Amino acid sequence: MSPSPSVVVTGLGAVSSLGVGVDRQWRAALAGRASIGPIGLFDTASHRTTIAAEVPKDAELAPGRGFSRAERFACTAAAEAVQGLPPAVLRSPRAGVFFGSSTGALHEGERFLAALLQHREGELAPLAAQQNDGPGTAVARMLGVQGPVVTFSTACTSANVALAAALDALQSGEIDVAVAGGADELCEITYAGFNSLRSVDARPTLPFRTSRAGLSLGEGAGVLLLETLAHAEQRGAPMLCELAGAGRSCDAHHVSAPDPDGTGAAAAIRMALQQAGLPPDAVTFVNAHGTGTPHNDDAESKAMLAVFGARSARIPVTSTKSLVGHLLGAAGGIEAVFTVLSIVHRQLPPTAGDEPADPALCLDVVLQQARALPSQNAGLSTNLAFGGNNAVLLFRSLGFLGSLGFRSLSP
Amino acid sequence: MTRREVVVTGVGCIGPWGIGLPGLAKALQQGLPLTSPIDRSAGYHRRGAATLLAACGELDLSPWLSPQQARRMSILSQYAVATARMALQDAGLADVRSDRTAVALATAFGPGTFTEQLARQILEKGGKAASPFLFTDCVANAASGQIAIDLGARGPNATICQREAGPLLALAHGAHDVAAGRADVCLAGAVDEMSPLSHAILDRFRALARPGGHGEVARPFDRRRRGFLAGEGATIVVLEAEASARARGARLLCRVGPTVRAFDPSAGRASFGRDHDALARTLLGRLAGTLCEVDTVVSSASGARRGDALEAAVLRAVCPRHTNVLVPKAVHGEYGGGTLAAALLALRGAEFGYPPACNEPDGALGISPASGRIEATRVLCSALAAGGAAAWSILEAP
Fold first, then answer.
1. Sign of CA pseudo-dihedral B46, B51, B54, B58
2. Chain B residue closest in CA terms to A246
3. For the whole model, what pTM was predicted?
4. Does the CB of A279 have a partner CB in chain B at under 8 Å?
């Protein structure tokens, strides 16, 4: 065992159905104000449901000629996250971009195919992002980074896997700074696809409730600026919290359904705790995957029971998907933003919706109003995905950092 | 963090050459492109578009995958699962069911055929016509998830989409999981399928070699190059910690050295960049002591006009003068991870024929493909991607 450098969060950026900007997201989240409504992006007449969490048409997104929506979401959130950072820091081989995306430019791809089927030529330029690396690569180009640029596409865990890879790259000494997160856009394939699985609730999603009947799809981006502690200290950066651990696992159970016992998710939580060098008792809240599908919420509650035992009924849990929908490959990005803000402001936003929590899940679901958190926090942000993919991040208050800024890393 | 040395103990591959390394070795020895006509029946291609593909064709995957299993998967997942099983058999590993078995796979386009079929269902018949079967296997990580389900691999599972740089990025990602002690075994590599729609879109971006002029041929480093040959297939290697591989008496195919990852922001969204100086500086900054001992480069040159120029400039700056430079993409085309398999062949002393399509080397690039028996001991695998990403990995004889 040898010391591994601590990694801190020094910037945040977000785009969602709540609009553009972290402050806007946070104000709405604290008020428990969901932004899920009728879809305007495409005609829903032929679909089973009609609502989603769509980025507002008047949102002030970064311009980008020929860009896909996802690329614009990504660049907008990344620009906010790196505000105040001298550009030269990013224009270096010591800076990297780690991004998650599940759909790339699929909405534009659908439009292109629709035109082809009518013997017309669609707009080609956005299809440069059709390969899922589009959003992350657009961010890298915008910022001029010269270090590693990697896009992960593991469905709903994509951004968490990307953030975990950024943590690895920073701790290994490959880079000093990483821009990491995810971006995804609504499209008919995912909308119809989840509907075909009967996984979309016709109402705004109700995670952890008895009547939960599925998710609400969303779109947007969530981006974190990560630095080694030494780098952040050297430049006098404002530090928000520490990204202390990440855990990844696979259920190896079913291509689209979670392991009903939550075994894989529990393994990922344990791995994140181990990397952070924390016992389960240190966790003060969970920003859960919480999709609102019966199977996911059930499996997740079992994973928490497996890791935390009886205390799982007393750890405050929220699902910010109730506010901004399920951003798929970007879910981990926007949820990491909410998790970091919860640590900074010591408040956990409520899970939107009026119903009481499902007592069968035995979880302390934060409802109705934000919950005050202790002065020092260790918060988990969990994501589960198609392919049985699980990825968990552990963020904690800066007060956990040792005086030298180093801690032990268990292999 | 104590890092463990990582070795390759098995390999599986399929591609336009068929199934397994011997078929690829034979194709590389001949040096001829493995082409067949692309299916244009859907009407996606424009007049004058590329007509050829380095296609897998009808492969008999039944030794690796039962017909019942195959029916439940996209063609991409079939390639991935069959190739993973092949790699494990080659490594002499019968059972890897464990939370210490990881998967790290790259794919440029994901399951293109399933995605296109699903999109057409929705566009032509409405959202309610969407097939749940197509949907669940059309996400990019379906293939890596199917490998995990098939093998019981419950460790970290990643899918990387970074165009042509993906295979080496996946190799590095998997090697890191093993080196850091998160996994004892990792199946790492790449899988790609080339649907007619993807092919037609690549052609619209003017990425592919087209008929007319000097012919529809991929000509890496040649003065007549005008684009690449699209390909498909899968290459997956088994990664293990060297100490445990030796302890179980495994045959070591190579040691996985460091990977350097970089980005060229001068690249366009669908094209290669021009800042070879910065890429070379990054590579030298990380690997200066190792590069002087590289005897062979398995190049990412594909016949792309700007991509090959960038590749040549970087290689000229970082490699010793008499380094062998191999161009396997002249044979198996772009995508499918074939270059990784070609690198293992170079380390085995395989013979590489001179691709006739490259017989007029571009003097401005200063690089000519090597040929003959290559007895490599230290290989630099190169992967420059359209859009700007880059990766280089060192593979060493054990």
1. positive
2. B156
3. 0.98
4. no
